[in-house]
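Re: that chain you flagged

S.,

Sorry for the slow reply, it's been a week of failed gels. I finally had a moment to sit down with the sequence you sent. For the record, here it is as I used it:
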Amino acid sequence: MDQRPIGVFDSGVGGLTVVSEIIKALPNEEIIYFGDTARVPYGSKSAETVTKFSRQIVHFLLSKDVKALVVACSTISSNCFDVLKSEFDIPMIEVISPGVEDCAHVTRNNIVGVIGTELTIRSGRYDCLLAEKIPGVKVYGKACPLFVPLAEECWTHNTITRMTAEIYLQELLDKGIDSLILGCTHYPILYDCIRDVVGPVRIINAAESTARKLKAFLVNSEMENSEHNANEHSFYLSDATNKFYRLCNLVLRKDYQATKIDIENL
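Prediction finished late last night. Pasting the structure tokens below so you have them in one place:
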């Protein structure tokens, strides 16, 4: 048993969907979350910049004596996870491969849609991993940049969100996809709206997939905290934002306070 906390980080506040799923799967674990709200979005930045920012965040979380790290950001996971994994000696889980593994189990016609940020889609990471898991797979990626601000406004199911989803997703539906990976941790916030638009298409929530993979790793490594932990989860941001508090209420169903830190000068 290991009672140290789990570190979770994202370019902003979308990673709270991953936190929510981890709390459900591992209710005894303490979580320390960092959201880089001062420098978001990552999806339109270069891979080099994303890597630089991510290194700073990992150093900060390691100073909190975390036992494992969850990269709760598809942009980071798809562009620099391998670099981070090679540079830091700590168990680290990203959000790309768990969703791919779940997709491999549910697709029937091997035609898969992936939605995410521009940098995630451009990286081709999903295409490569899906090709390894599903021989002959056809992957259609679609960047959906407007989904992030809609999620952060908590516009989960209004007319504007529905119309945006229809415009983005119709192209994928026309390709005959039978499964759709939500390749950005913001997107589960819009799950119900996306569900209505894609109908019978199977939706893979990578946040849920990641929490299951984390639990399996901790159990198999005998690192799970099997005792109830009375400690509160801790949240850190690089800039104060009302978006964090709105999404805490929506996603975590609880008011948490966040501490602002200067991530570049620690």
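What I noticed first: Residues 47-62 form the longest helix (16 residues).

Talk soon,
D.
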